[in-house]
Amino acid sequence: MNSNRCRTYTGRSQNWLLVGLMSFTPLAAHAENDNSQPMTWRGCGITQQAFMRSCAKAYEKETGEQIIVSGGGAALGIRSTAGGSADMGGTCRYCMPGRFSNEQGVEVAIIAWDALVAVTHPSNQTESLTQKQLSGILRGDIKNWKEIGGSDQRIILVGRKGKDSGVGVMMRELILNDPEFNFSQDSILLRSSRPVELFLERTPGAIAITGVSSAKKRDLKILHVDGVAPTRENIASGRFPYYRPLYIAHSPNANPRTLAFIEWIQGKKGQAVIADQGTVTLAMGLNLLSSFKHWGKGNNITNRERLMKLAQGR
Question: Are residues 231 and 250 in the same domain?
Fold first, then answer.
């Protein structure tokens, strides 16, 4: 890929600066550090499934640096980084240090864009939901698929445990506009996105909210919203409504090896891997920065201001 270009959805190239094209050599940073021990990345299962394993593999091939990737959810990604049990964390929500003391002292960088989607078993006959219908299903007001034009089948609502997961926080803000929403007692609540998606694959009648970046790699039906499909183009343009950034978390005092990877994943090689995995890259999603409003306090996002300047100057 040309260093002054990035991929678009049609395969054409435009003269956008690929965000994070930093002039750095990872091996130079490695020379100052003992890299005999693998680095660790923990957290967001959507990011893990979407592209992080592929990024870790590509980075190891290029630099010899191994990164051990494991899931567990966005909250775990932030807190493992804050507590020092992981070098980096993956999160699909903002940090909440005012609410959770174990999320203090963490910085994050935006590395890609995702969207929340409603997913069902592949056999489901429903193709699209309105925003009002989706909200009604999540709130338990709609209990059978026939109420929205589907088959006569009970809706099995599957969600995430707690209110601090990446999907949980963003679903409450983006879809329900209710941060304190509680699922009904007959809902099935699971610990992270991976078991949610696996449960949906084998359970006709079930519905859940997850991230499109991982859902499209599963045997799931992804529903349209108001007739709009969550394609990369529709997410990047903001036409599909429930878009949100994906972040990588790290300590403000992260070691040079960790910082080298964080620069790499924002740069042309890392972003190329993310694009190859079908996820909206930083350059593709520049237009979303001004319309997205759910940043939390946002004062620990290290690259947001630079991205905004790129978007304004494009």
Answer: no
Same domain, 121 and 58: no
In a domain, residue 5? The reply is: no
pLDDT in tens, 72-96: 999 999 999 999 999 999 999 999 9
Indicate which CATH number applies to the domain containing 155: 3.40.190.10
Are 214 and 125 in the same domain? Answer: yes
Q: Which residue pairs, CB below 8 angstroms and at least 24 apart, start in 160-164?
A: 160/73, 160/189, 160/190, 160/191, 160/192, 160/193, 160/196, 161/189, 161/190, 161/191, 162/75, 164/75, 164/96, 164/100
- Mean pLDDT across the chain, nearest whole number? 90
For 223-248, the pLDDT digits (tens) are 999 999 999 999 999 999 999 999 99
Q: Which of 226, 187, 193 is nearest to 212 (CA)?
A: 193
Tokens 């593709």 sit on residue: 284
Q: How far apart are CA 7 and CA 280, in angstroms?
A: 10
Domain encompassing residue 191: 115-237
- Same domain for 101 and 181, yes or no, is no
CA distance 166 to 45: 10
d(Cα 125, Cα 269) in Å, to the nearest integer? Answer: 40
Dist. CA 261–CA 146, nearest whole Å: 49
